[in-house]
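Supplementary Methods, section 5.1.

A reviewer requested that the exact input to the structure prediction be made available. We therefore reproduce it here, unchanged from the version used in the analyses.
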Amino acid sequence: MSDEQLTSFIDGTGGHAANKRLFKDRVAHSDAAFDVAAGAPAAWLAKITAGEHVHPKSAKEAGQIGRALQGIGDAGLADIERLRSIAGDCLDAIAGSRAAAPGSYIRRGIARIDELADRLRQ
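The structure derived from this sequence is encoded token-by-token as follows.
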């Protein structure tokens, strides 16, 4: 599906206008899921980019790692499968958690990984 077709599909859905705008912006901008990591997520990002073993021990840590994944730059292109594995570990860590924020951060981190993977396909 081309970007134009995807945008047309989004326009044809019954969702809220604000959500449609958000999704269309993500299609139009290749770095829409990127966000600069600060604080604890920045420390996790440093470990990830250094190639250290990263495994969340709690939903809170999983959310922080999800936010770190949002900060991955083009250097992450070389290690997409490892990043996907880290994101999967984060999803496992939040299973059964009632906290909504960690899941949101992880999904956005996965979106960032997808953006990087898309660059590899081009």
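Helices lie at 3-12, 17-28, 40-49, 59-70, 80-94, 101-121. These observations are discussed further in the main text.
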